[in-house]
Write a structure and sequence with these properties.
Structural class: mainly beta
Strand order of the largest sheet: 3-2-1-28
Radius of gyration: 19 Å
Shape: globular
Distance between the termini: 14 Å
Order of helices and strands: EEEEEEEEEEEEEEEEEEEEEEEEEEEE
Oligomer: single chain
Length: about 350
């Protein structure tokens, strides 16, 4: 009987022309925090966001293409993953929605993908075939409206979609509307059904969110005004109720900034967010009873424009993807305090904008 082992691979998406490498695979050394390139793929334009199905060893990637009329549209590609070799193989690619996309998420049962179009103001529900390939477009939810910022919020700009832990609901952060829109997933009819929505303060610009492991709290990072808003979450109704909003910046920082990524640690004790402008990761402790946030640290990302970051599955490291300085920087996490410490390790990658570390069975 063979003994299965696990390998930690890191998948990276980037801004790239179709003829250039844009999707990268790295092996991660958990002793040192070092990334070693094992594969790269060219052929997709701006493969900026990724999702990995670790059980089935599948990688899903968004990209841009044009339709028969020459219009820019969204595309999604599926890859099979060879965990032992650290390599990927293209399975298929399909047009998704009638505009470029910025985010892709997968329903945990392996039957659906959702893609988010910032510029098109819409969410698309895609099927996944039995083989794991990208299937057909099943449903589109178009957002309408605006908010207060004249340039950033003149129309809908959904920036991400995240499934609730039980998969019943899909939470969509719309930067342009200052709203989080919750949809129920109707699996039988392959539809997204509007369930509820919650308004944030005007000018917030919600971008990404993270569920607390207890399933009762949700934290949203607001891109436009550099804040984080916390909510209680009712898993039965999918309803969010606002708790508090805190700044991601030091009080003395007065220059331009926008936020990007947010993550709650697996133990539920700490929250991390990225600042672009201040070029830092902000760290908060999460109060065990109330869920309120207490500032712990601001630390430089040792680069520019941290558009995304990820925490390794064992919670030991944070990887910051700095788009404007073409590097991914490795930080060590002190699990007792939540604080980050720069390891001195920086990996050169062209315009990285998404980083996904995953354990895979070899």
């Amino acid at each position: 009987m063979t003994v299965e082992s696990q390998r930690l691979l890191v998948f990276v998406g980037s801004y790239a022309e179709a003829g250039d490498n844009g999707v990268y695979v790295y092996a991660f050394d958990e002793a040192t925090g070092t990334l070693t390139l094992t594969d790269e793929f060219a052929g997709l334009k701006n493969p900026t966001f990724l999702n990995v199905d670790a059980k089935r060893k599948l990688l899903y990637v968004i990209s841009e293409t044009v339709n028969q009329a020459g219009q820019k549209v969204g595309e999604a590609a599926a890859f099979s993953i060879d965990a032992a070799g650290g390599s990927i193989q293209l399975m298929n690619r399909e047009i998704t929605v009638d505009s470029t996309t910025c985010h892709i998420q997968r329903y945990e049962n392996g039957r659906f993908l959702t893609v988010t179009s910032y510029h098109g103001g819409m969410i698309g529900l895609m099927s996944i075939t039995e083989e794991g390939a990208v299937g057909s477009l099943l449903d589109v939810r178009q957002h309408e409206g605006s908010s207060q910022h004249p340039d950033r919020q003149d129309r809908p700009h959904p920036h991400s979609s995240f499934y609730s832990p039980d998969g019943r609901y899909l939470l969509v952060s719309d930067l342009g509307l200052d709203r989080i829109v919750t949809y129920a997933l109707d699996e039988l009819n392959s539809k997204l059904v509007h369930q509820s929505e919650v308004a944030l303060h005007p000018g917030a610009g919600p971008r990404h969110l993270s569920f607390h492991p207890n399933g009762k709290l949700v934290y949203v990072i607001n891109e436009v005004d550099s804040t984080i808003t916390s909510f209680t979450y009712d898993k039965e109704s999918g309803q969010l109720v606002t708790q508090e909003t805190v700044s991601t910046l030091p009080p003395d920082f007065k220059d331009e900034n926008s936020c990007a990524e947010i993550k709650v640690s697996a133990d539920g004790k700490y929250l991390y967010g990225s600042n672009r402008g201040h070029d830092s990761i902000v760290v908060f402790a999460i109060h065990e009873q109330s869920g309120m946030l207490v500032l712990v640290q601001h630390i430089s990302v040792e680069g520019g424009h941290p558009r995304h970051f990820a925490i390794t599955p064992n919670g030991d490291f944070l990887l910051a993807a700095n788009r404007d300085t073409d590097n991914i920087v490795t930080f060590k996490i002190d699990k007792a305090s939540g604080k980050l410490e720069h390891t001195g390790i920086s990996t050169t990658v062209s315009k990285p904008v998404c980083v996904v570390p995953v354990y895979l069975t070899t």
